[in-house]
Inverse folding.
């Protein structure tokens, strides 16, 4: 709304603001219709989701915890949460034929980029985007999934349990500064839109990289200048066998304590993230 | 200067053979024959561009024993067609003719001076800063001729050097070549028999890959010419020289 | 008198290229100084802290040098490929050497051998080169057109392999894509030294052949009958160019267009002889790349970077459009 007020003030361009408002209203109506449609479709079929395909591996453990595992009929190639389900390919490029053959009624996808809405229209299937950026958003998504799958009780229990977990966090005397390396080559670090930032903050630390992105391609000199107390580098598919940061020549003046973590435990916005918080908190307090 | 013995060379299915041939300084030779008779192949063999069998002495030395640079200090060749894919100016194109004389690293002052002389001789001095590829066909041909002459080599091989050149410059060029041939060997592939008969004093005739005749001007006769070319050739003798009249068909 | 003045005017042409070299060298020094001064971290040059000194000497200066050397290597290899292939559009891309180097690099990534990426790139580049060479040479002669076709085949095959590997592991995609875009983040004194050595060696090897490189711009008959060992020269230039490409790809990924743009601009400025073209391309390549990297690492705030390939490719794309529309004639003559 803020920008709307602004453009009203700029009297020099009445036409422009007219168009602006026209668009605004148009978008509003469009969104209303969309929400209503979605709302009704949810009411209509809320009990009917019996064939779920999970295209985002981090969501699978959630479904398992919600005791909806028996409804899952398809997962991605790398997903090892469920046995005896069809592997439909990669999360970015699922096999459409396999998908169709599974006749899913719900697809759980990571992002609109990975699974555009046009796909869901084509397949005549509902999509649930599991794309939390913070720990709180994970809890919200769990609740929503619980509603969708008629597993409200399980969802509440899970959310409660996860919140319990967070209560084990030990308070720190001082908040340590952190930089988290996503990949070494190119040098990418976690930005403020990454689940990592939320994990670091809950664990009692501060992510020094505040760029509003998930992953930030960063100048090595900036990392040195920011001089984090702790430099965390993940190892996993995104960072296969990286060189130890202290062995890289451009990091020779990096004084930080270096910690190596598993990408699967940290960089996935699922249940694991809560364990990651605890582990990181443990590390922080040990260092203290 | 050039001594050939039982030379044979293969060009695919085509076979070139020269029994024996001796060329001395001062020879101004026309190489004649129909298409595909082996004229260009012959020049290629002489210039060392083709593998051959047989004996080839160049300037008293075994040809095979000479380094590439030495060979081309002695021989310069103007191929039938030349292409250039860099926008070099005319001066530089002519200058590159001096390459075998250099140490490979740079052209010397004397190369520059020789180039300037040749540019003037071929009446292309005014074109020296123009891009070679922007010239007309005849101008290009004169530049390429100048490039070959700039080598200042004792043996000069020219494959149809006059094609595309206007009459005036044809005459100038021929006069220049004649003058140069006083102390060199110049071989030139010619298609115009009248011109050949008028201007040259030695003739090599190729028929189906073989050097068929090696004749001096006096030895030329109509019958042999007719047989070589497959057209009726008659001479009209005139006080200013021999004129050639040809009739196509069954002659 | 006139004769002497002609010689002198040719000399002055030589000085003309000398002036161009000095001018470009000055520009290079200026852009290098700016590149050293600017960066994600502001350095107070008159009261450097310990950490600023470290950043300057172990991060920024090596990076500027690395960018410059990779630019030189790519421009140099571009020039050489253009001589060998007699094609103005030839460079490390069209011969397939870049792509096969990148394939080697991506294989290293997939195998999780991050540390030896440059070695794999080198191996990939040389395998690609030998393949192109084997396909394109008939009885020891390298046919330029067949070589171009072979280059396309190798490139296509390499890209297909890269795509396949991308498909095999979606998570490493961003890493691979960046690799294909190139960059200088991991510059180090050691890499700079090795690359500098490779370029110096290549330069010394080719410097003796300036005149003959010009002569192989003629058709082969003319070139051979001018006393140039055409095949030997082509082979040599080809291998030197491949070596330069493999080292640049190994250290900095594929960075497109530099090998085309830089020599083209220098030729458009009427420096067409190898003795002018090669030194100017070395300087021009360094200048162009340092500038691009400077933009790539300073255009965004908070120490963020852009992959440098995005900048070279967009500058290169615009330039090529200009070339195709306005300067068709030059392209045509070169052909």
């Amino acid at each position: 709304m803020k920008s709307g007020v602004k453009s009203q003030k700029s009297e020099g361009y009445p036409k422009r603001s007219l168009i602006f408002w026209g668009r605004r209203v148009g978008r509003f109506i469009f969104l209303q219709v969309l929400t209503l449609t979605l709302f009704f479709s949810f009411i209509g079929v809320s009990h009917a989701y019996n064939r779920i395909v999970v295209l985002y591996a981090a969501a699978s453990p959630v479904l398992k915890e919600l005791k909806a595992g028996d409804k899952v009929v398809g997962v991605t190639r790398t997903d090892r949460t469920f046995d005896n389900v069809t592997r439909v390919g990669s999360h970015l490029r699922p096999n459409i034929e396999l998908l169709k053959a599974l006749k899913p009624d719900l697809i759980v996808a990571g992002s609109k980029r990975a699974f555009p809405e046009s796909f869901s229209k084509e397949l005549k299937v509902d999509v649930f985007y599991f794309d939390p950026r913070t720990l709180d958003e994970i809890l919200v998504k769990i609740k929503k999934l619980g509603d969708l799958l008629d597993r409200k009780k399980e969802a509440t229990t899970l959310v409660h349990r996860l919140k319990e977990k967070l209560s084990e966090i030990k308070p720190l005397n001082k908040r340590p500064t952190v930089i988290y390396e996503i990949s070494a080559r190119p040098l990418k670090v976690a930005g403020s839109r990454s689940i990592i930032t939320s994990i670091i903050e809950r664990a009692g630390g501060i992510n020094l990289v505040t760029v509003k992105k998930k992953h930030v391609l960063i100048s090595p000199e900036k990392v040195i200048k920011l001089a984090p107390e702790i430099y965390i580098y993940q190892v996993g598919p995104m960072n296969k066998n990286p060189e130890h940061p202290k062995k890289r020549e451009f990091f020779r003046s990096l004084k930080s304590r270096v910690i190596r973590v598993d990408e699967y435990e940290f960089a996935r916005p699922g249940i694991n993230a809560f364990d990651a918080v605890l582990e990181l908190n443990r590390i922080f307090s040990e260092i203290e | 200067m050039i001594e050939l013995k039982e030379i044979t060379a293969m060009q695919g299915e085509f076979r070139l053979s020269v029994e024996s041939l001796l060329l001395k300084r001062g020879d101004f030779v026309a190489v004649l024959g129909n298409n595909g008779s082996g004229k260009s192949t012959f020049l290629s063999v002489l210039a060392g561009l083709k593998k051959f069998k047989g004996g080839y002495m160049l300037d008293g030395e075994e040809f095979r024993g000479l380094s590439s640079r030495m060979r081309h200090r002695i021989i310069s060749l103007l191929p039938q067609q030349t292409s250039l894919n860099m926008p070099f100016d005319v001066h530089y194109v002519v200058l590159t003719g001096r390459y075998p004389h250099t140490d490979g690293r740079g052209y010397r002052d004397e190369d520059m001076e020789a180039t300037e002389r040749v540019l003037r001789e071929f009446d292309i001095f005014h074109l020296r800063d123009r891009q070679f590829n922007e010239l007309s066909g005849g101008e290009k041909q004169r530049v390429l001729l100048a490039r070959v002459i700039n080598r200042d080599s004792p043996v000069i091989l020219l494959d149809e050097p006059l094609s595309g050149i206007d009459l005036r410059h044809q005459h100038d060029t021929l006069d220049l070549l004649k003058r140069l041939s006083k102390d060199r060997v110049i071989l030139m592939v010619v298609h115009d028999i009248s011109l050949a008969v008028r201007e040259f004093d030695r003739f090599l005739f190729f028929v189906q890959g073989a050097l068929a005749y090696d004749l001096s001007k006096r030895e030329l006769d109509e019958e042999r010419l007719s047989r070589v070319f497959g057209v009726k050739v008659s001479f009209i003798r005139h006080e200013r020289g021999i004129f050639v009249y040809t009739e196509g068909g069954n002659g | 008198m006139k004769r002497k003045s002609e010689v002198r005017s040719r000399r002055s042409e030589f000085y003309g290229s000398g002036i161009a070299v000095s001018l470009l060298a000055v520009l290079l020094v200026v852009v290098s100084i700016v590149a050293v001064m600017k960066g994600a971290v502001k350095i107070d040059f008159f009261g450097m802290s310990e950490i600023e000194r470290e950043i300057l000497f172990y991060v920024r200066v090596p990076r500027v040098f690395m960018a410059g050397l990779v630019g030189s290597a790519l421009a140099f290899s571009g020039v050489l490929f253009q001589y060998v292939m007699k094609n103005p559009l030839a460079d490390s891309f069209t011969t397939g050497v870049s792509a096969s180097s990148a394939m080697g690099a991506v294989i290293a990534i997939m195998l999780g051998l991050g540390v030896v990426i440059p070695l794999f790139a080198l191996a990939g580049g040389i395998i690609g080169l030998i393949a192109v060479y084997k396909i394109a040479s008939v009885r020891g002669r390298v046919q330029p057109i067949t070589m171009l076709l072979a280059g396309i085949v190798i490139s296509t095959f390499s890209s297909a392999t890269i795509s396949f590997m991308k498909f095999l592991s979606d998570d490493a995609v961003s890493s691979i894509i960046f690799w294909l875009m190139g960059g200088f983040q991991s510059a180090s004194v050691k890499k700079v030294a090795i690359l500098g050595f490779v370029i110096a060696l290549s330069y010394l090897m080719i410097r003796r052949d300036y005149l003959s490189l010009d002569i192989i711009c003629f058709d082969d008959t003319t070139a051979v009958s001018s006393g140039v060992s055409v095949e030997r020269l082509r082979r040599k230039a080809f291998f030197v160019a491949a070596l330069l490409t493999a080292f640049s790809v190994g250290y900095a990924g594929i960075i497109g267009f530099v090998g085309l743009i830089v020599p083209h601009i220098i030729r458009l400025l009427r420096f067409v002889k190898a003795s002018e073209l090669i030194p100017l391309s070395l300087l021009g390549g360094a200048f162009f790349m340092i500038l691009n990297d400077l933009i790539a690492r300073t255009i965004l705030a908070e120490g963020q970077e852009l992959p440098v390939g995005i900048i070279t490719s967009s500058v290169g794309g615009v330039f090529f459009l200009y070339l195709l529309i306005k300067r068709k004639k030059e392209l045509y003559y070169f052909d």
In short: Chain C has a mean pLDDT of 84. Chain C touches chain B at residues 3, 6-7, 10, 86, 88, 207-212, 214-215, 217-219, 221-222, 224-229, 267, 270, 272-273, 275, 330, 333-335 (CB under 8 Å). The first helix of chain C runs from residue 2 to 37. Residues 2-334 of chain C form a domain with the ABC transporter involved in vitamin B12 uptake, BtuC fold (CATH 1.10.3470.10).
